[in-house]
């Protein structure tokens, strides 16, 4: 079958100590310290065979993620930019939907023909964090499209416990093709949902919310916050095209943060009270957190969803005086997050397909990822 495979040279930086675990598993904890000279290529690889607990999915749509862009882009020394868990060579792609075409003999709740999406995080279910209810912190994590074969491919084998049916979305949209597109946006929307509602505990209807950065995660955040009853969603984004998308997703106010002082705008729009809930989806916390700090409502919450390997200055006195809190969020598994996002889509409360701005064929996946590096699109989707 055809697939878009990333290969890179295992070449640890002189100051990076490769652990025994990394040597044994071939999995690198800090990708950009080891993987050099990435090569992305659409080529033939073996069609996967399924284990008894797995299903074989014919991929129908797969979104390009910011992390895919960080595999394509390198720093001045030729290392990938992506800082996280990785093992190569591997086919990329993890925001996907497809049709079940083969079912393993231990699988009881899926049948051939089911339309599904799947969690990207392959949590084990038996390590201590998993057993304690924290699958996003699994110690034996594999990640689809990062450490094992991804969905920029014709077929993918996935553990049935990670799959969620899209049938209800198809019933609402009345079109399988649209439902598969919606299905491919469930994963990034679930990352936003997990950060806002699960990790940070959400907000009361009527709250004022800010969203910094309106790439795919920020766009999902806007849609979710409006659906959850935010009275005002105030968004900040440097790209003009993404500012338009932010409005389309339901943001009440959208600004270019290089043209205004965000904290001043928020204080003005909230009549001096500040915003109750702040979403960091820009991955630029050294710039965004100091602004959020200056417009915290009493009992405000900040959730960090964007990724940035940086130390961020915070003035903790403000958090004490404003009775405010800060949350770090990663992942999308557990807590009914995937099924709740699917319900939101199937009820028409959110429509994330509006965020899809470009579509490519599987053979053109490398071009699709290259296009994402201009950081102006909403979601770019590859359809085999
Ligand atoms: Zn992603
Ligand atoms: Zn685990």
What does this structure look like?
It contains 13 helices and 18 strands. With 384 residues, the protein is α/β, with parallel strands linked by helices. The strands form four sheets. Strands 3, 5, 6, 9, 10, 17 and 18 form a seven-stranded mixed sheet that branches. A six-stranded parallel sheet has the order 13-12-11-14-15-16, with helices on both faces. Strands 2-1-4 form a three-stranded antiparallel sheet, with no helix packed on it. Helix 11 links the parallel strand 15 and strand 16. It is globular. The N and C termini lie close together (11 Å). The mean pLDDT is 96. Bound molecules: zinc ion (2 copies). One zinc ion (ZN) binds next to helix 3.
Query: Rg from C-alpha positions?
Result: 20 Å
Which spans of ≥5 residues are poorly predicted at pLDDT below 50?
Answer: none
- Put simply, the count of helices is 13
Largest sheet: 7 strands, mixed
What's the number of extended β-strand segments?
18
Which descriptor suits the 3D outline? globular
Specify the helix fraction band: 25-40%
Bound molecules: zinc ion
Beta-strand residue percentage: 25-35%
**Mean of pLDDT:** 96
Q: In terms of structural class, how would the helical and strand content be classed?
A: alpha/beta
Distance between the termini: 11 Å
Which key features would you list for this structure?
single chain; 384 residues; alpha/beta; seven-stranded mixed β-sheet; six-stranded parallel β-sheet; 28% helix; globular; binds zinc ion
């Amino acid at each position: 079958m055809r697939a878009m495979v990333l290969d890179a040279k295992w070449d640890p930086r002189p100051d990076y100590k490769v652990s025994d675990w990394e040597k044994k598993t071939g999995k690198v904890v800090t990708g950009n310290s080891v993987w050099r000279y990435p090569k992305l290529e659409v080529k033939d690889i073996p069609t996967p065979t399924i284990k008894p607990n797995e299903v074989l999915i014919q991929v129908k749509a797969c979104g390009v993620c910011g992390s895919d862009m960080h595999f394509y882009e390198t720093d001045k020394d030729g290392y990938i930019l992506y800082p996280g868990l990785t093992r190569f060579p591997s086919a990329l792609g993890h925001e996907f939907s497809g049709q079940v075409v083969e079912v393993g003999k231990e699988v009881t709740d899926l049948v051939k023909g089911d339309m599904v999406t799947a969690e990207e995080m392959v949590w084990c279910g038996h390590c201590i964090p998993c057993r304690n209810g924290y699958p996003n912190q699994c110690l034996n994590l594999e990640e689809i499209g990062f450490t094992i074969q991804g969905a920029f491919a014709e077929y993918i084998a996935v553990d049935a416990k990670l799959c969620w049916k899209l049938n209800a979305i198809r019933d609402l949209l009345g079109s399988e093709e649209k439902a598969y597109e919606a299905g491919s946006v469930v994963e990034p929307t679930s990352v936003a949902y997990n950060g806002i509602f699960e990790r940070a505990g959400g907000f009361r209807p009527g709250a004022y919310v800010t969203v910094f950065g309106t790439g795919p995660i920020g766009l999902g955040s806007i849609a979710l916050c409006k659906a959850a009853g935010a009275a005002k969603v105030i968004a900040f984004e440097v790209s003009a095209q993404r500012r338009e998308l932010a409005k389309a997703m339901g943001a009440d106010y959208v600004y270019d943060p290089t043209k205004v002082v965000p904290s001043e705008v928020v204080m003005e729009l909230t009549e001096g009270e500040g915003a109750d809930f702040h979403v960091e989806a820009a991955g630029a916390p050294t710039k965004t957190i100091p602004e959020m700090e200056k417009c915290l409502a009493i009992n405000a919450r900040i959730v960090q969803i964007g990724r940035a390997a940086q130390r961020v200055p915070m003035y903790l006195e403000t958090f004490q005086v404003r009775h405010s809190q800060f949350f770090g969020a990663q992942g999308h598994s557990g807590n009914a997050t995937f099924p709740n996002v699917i319900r939101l889509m199937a009820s028409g409360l959110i429509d994330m397909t509006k965020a899809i701005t470009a579509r490519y064929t599987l053979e053109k996946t490398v071009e699709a990822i290259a296009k994402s590096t201009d950081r102006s699109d909403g979601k770019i989707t590859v359809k085999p």
